[in-house]
Amino acid sequence: MRLIDRIIQCRAPFIVENCVNHRHTRVSGAMDAAADLERCPIRYVLDDELISLCADLAYSNGTTIMGCADLIRVPAESIWVEWCNKPWRHALSRNGLKYDTDGDSPVGHYGMLIRASSDGQRGVMRAFWCVGDRDLDVHASATQACFYLDEAAPELPDEPGVLRVTASAMDPEGILGRCFHFEFEDSWARYYRQAAPLASQEKEILHQSIGVVALAVPVLLAFFLLLTTRAGLPQRQSQLQRLNRDRLQRGRAPLAEHIEVSAPLLPPYREAQVEAAAAGARRHPRLHHVRGHLVRRNDRLIWRVPHLRGRSHEGVLKSRTVEWRFDAGKAQRGERSSRGSTP
């Protein structure tokens, strides 16, 4: 079952126990997002190839996603995006990133619920994921990411009880350090103010908690970037009417309508095994993965596809350049407004 359906049908409140005084507190979990997700007008489900493409694009060398911030828009005021965990984790590992959350598993799904301004440039993202078949295996992040794609994240005044951090230490030259700050969701903020009375303790917990959100943000922005290209992305509306009629007749909850999004046709690149060199033969370069390289030129985004380099006796390596085009007028306006700030 998809994560969106797991959350909408979740009926288990999330209760945490203070290890010191053993007091139980209810905090915001998957169950509390069910109503918002059920009302969400746009729900995207990304296939495995597309989430791998978005991860490769987000963590390419060359121009960063920050260099394309003027082209990125969240396409609705409320939107859901989800994908399978396994290909995403594999793509992160391929690009030299470690995805590590306590108790997490490569199986299951990951998703983001985004609330955005009408122009799609500002808003809040919160992460959700599942690791098993029970309601208690569906999790919501304790932190949320606030974004400002039209400008640098503002220096917000200190508010009593509100702790915020930027991701500049994690991503000093990229979009996280410039356009995002992270904070606890309100119920989690109240809980940690009681559980960690020292400000230094609370800040350390916040820094540890943002990782599960921060790794997904550039990947999600890469997806929104591909949506705005002239060619767009292949999309297919789910057809659940007959299935849902059968489910309702059996007394089961209907599944949520969504849009299935797949990757555009790209040159193939895949991993292969290297045979051991024969004794006494000249050694060939070790087979290794080469990250993609991204270049922004006005209304064009040019991407050198990630590929394998080295000797391989299995499969044929094909690596070519992919080019995406955007509306020229919007790209030129964005270039003028961001001139001097693009890395």
Describe the structure.
By secondary structure, this protein is of the alpha+beta class. The protein has a domain of 235 residues. The chain is built from 11 helices and 17 strands. The strands form 4 sheets. Strands 9-10-8-7-6-5-3-12-11 form a 9-stranded mixed β-sheet. Strands 4-14-15-17 form a 4-stranded mixed β-sheet, with no helix packed on it. A two-stranded antiparallel ribbon has the order 1-2. Helix 3 runs parallel beside helix 4 and helix 3 packs across helix 9. The protein starts with a helix and ends in a 5-residue tail after the last helix. The C terminus is likely disordered.
Task: List the SSEs and their pairings.
Elements: H1 3-8, E1 14-17, E2 24-27, H2 30-39, E3 42-46, H3 48-58, E4 61-62, E5 78-84, H4 85-94, E6 109-116, E7 122-130, E8 138-148, E9 164-166, H5 175-179, E10 180-184, H6 186-195, H7 199-209, H8 211-214, H9 216-227, E11 235-237, H10 241-249, E12 259-261, E13 288-290, E14 293-297, E15 300-304, E16 307-309, E17 321-325, H11 328-338
Parallel strand pairs: 3-5, 3-12, 4-14
Antiparallel strand pairs: 1-2, 5-6, 6-7, 7-8, 8-10, 9-10, 11-12, 13-16, 14-15, 15-17
Helix pairs in contact: 3-4, 3-9
Fill in the keyword field for this structure.
single chain; 343 residues; alpha+beta; 9-stranded mixed β-sheet
Question: Could you write a compact summary of the structure shown?
Answer:
The chain contains eleven helices and 17 strands. The protein is α+β, with helices and mostly antiparallel strands.
Portion in beta strands: 15-25%
Q: Kindly provide the radius of gyration, computed on alpha-carbon positions and rounded to a whole number of angstroms.
A: 22 Å
Alpha-beta classification = alpha+beta
Helical content (DSSP H or I, runs of 4+) = 25-40%
Number of strands: 17
Shape: globular
